[in-house]
Write a structure and sequence with these properties.
CATH class: Alpha Beta
CATH superfamily: YqgF/RNase H-like domain
Oligomer: single chain
Number of domains: 1
Strand order of the largest sheet: 3-2-1-4-5
Mean pLDDT: 79
Helix content: 40-55%
Radius of gyration: 16 Å
CATH topology: Nucleotidyltransferase, domain 5
CATH architecture: 2-Layer Sandwich
Shape: globular
Strand content: 15-25%
Number of helices: 6
Distance between the termini: 50 Å
Length: 182
C-alpha cells in the first residue's frame, strides 16, 4: 500500500464532529469547553441517482471528504469524531428487523454507503494530521431533532455537534440547556 505524504503538523485545539448521510457530510467544530465555533456541509446530491459508475461516484465522495478535512484543519481542529462503523452496521440490522427500511434500494445504500464514507474519512484524516475517534451514534439523531430548531442548525449538523460533545465527555442535554439563545 502506498502512503500519501502527510501535511504539516496541526496546531489546533478544537474537536470536529462529523455526521455522514447519503447526500452530505456535516462538520461541527467545537472548542474543548463545548462551544460550537463553526459548521460546514459538503453536499453531493447527484449520488442519489442510480446509474453512476464507480469511478465517478468515488471521485465525488473523495472530493467532499477532502473539502471537509481541509476545512477542519484550517479552522483549528486536531481531532475528528466519527460515528462508529460497527455500531452503524448493528443499527442497520435493527432497522431491517423492525421493518424501518423504506425500500430494498434504501437498505443497500445506507448499509454500504455510510460506513464506507466513514472508513474513507478515517483513512485520509492522518494525511491532514488529524486524529480520529469513534463515538457511539445511538440517540444522536433524536437529541439533534430536539435541539436543532432552538440552536439554529439542521438536524444533521446538530448530530455532528452532539458527537463532538460526546467525545469531550459533556452531556449534550446539559450543554443545550446552558446555551445562549439568540
Amino acid at each position: 500500500m502506498r502512503y500519501l505524504p502527510a501535511k504539516e503538523h496541526v496546531n489546533g485545539n478544537h474537536v470536529g464532529g462529523i455526521d455522514v448521510n447519503l447526500d452530505r457530510i456535516n462538520l461541527a467544530i467545537v472548542s474543548r469547553q463545548g462551544v460550537l465555533l463553526d459548521t460546514y456541509t459538503a453536499r453531493f446530491p447527484e449520488l442519489k441517482e442510480q446509474g453512476l459508475d464507480y469511478d465517478r461516484r468515488t471521485s465525488i465522495i473523495m472530493n467532499a471528504i477532502h473539502k471537509i478535512l481541509d476545512y477542519a484543519v484550517n479552522h483549528g481542529c486536531s481531532l475528528i469524531v466519527l460515528e462508529n462503523p460497527k455500531t452503524l452496521g448493528y443499527l442497520r440490522w435493527v432497522w431491517i428487523r423492525r421493518g424501518k427500511r423504506k425500500s430494498s434500494v434504501w437498505n443497500r445504500r445506507v448499509s454500504l454507503f455510510t460506513t464506507s464514507i466513514v472508513e474513507r474519512i478515517s483513512w485520509h484524516a492522518p494525511q491532514y494530521g488529524l486524529k480520529t475517534y469513534y463515538a457511539n451514534p445511538a440517540y444522536t439523531s433524536k437529541i439533534a431533532e430536539l435541539i436543532s430548531k432552538d440552536v439554529g442548525l439542521d438536524r444533521h449538523t446538530a448530530s455532528a455537534y452532539i458527537l463532538a460533545l460526546e467525545y469531550l465527555g459533556l452531556n449534550p442535554r446539559e450543554v443545550y440547556q446552558n446555551l445562549q439563545r439568540p
